[in-house]
Amino acid sequence: MTNAEESRVTVFYDGACPLCAREIGFYRQREGAEAVTWLDVSAVEDIEVAPGLSKDQALARFHVLDPQGKLLTGGAAFAQLWRALPGFRLLGRIGQTAPAAWVLKHAYNGFLRLRPRLQAWFRRREGA
Questions:
Q1: Which tops the pLDDT comparison, 31 or 47?
Q2: How far is it, in rounded angstroms, from Cα 38 to Cα 41?
C-alpha cells in the first residue's frame, strides 16, 4: 500500500438518496476529491461494507473511514471529509474542536429527523 493509499479517506454514502447523491456530487467536484475513496453503499451487495459497518448502518447515517482506519459517523464524519478536501480543510479542523464537534453532532442528528421528508421532497421535485 502506498503512502497516498494509507492516507486516503473513505466516504460511505447512500447513492439512492437524491439528497445524499446531490451533496456527495458537490464534494466530488471539489479540488482534492480524487484523493477520497467514494463508496455508494446502495450499490453494494455485501451485508458488511467495511469491518464493523453493515450496509443498513451505512445507509442510515453518513460514515467516513479516516486514514488511521477509525470509523466516524455523523458530524464527525463530515469534519473528517472536510479535512480531506483543501477548500474545506479549515472548516474540518474547526469541526473537530470540542465546541464545534458538539454542534455538528447535534445538527446532524436533527437533520436525520428531517431526512425522510427532505428525501420525499427531492423525489417529488425530480419526478416533476
A1: 31
A2: 9
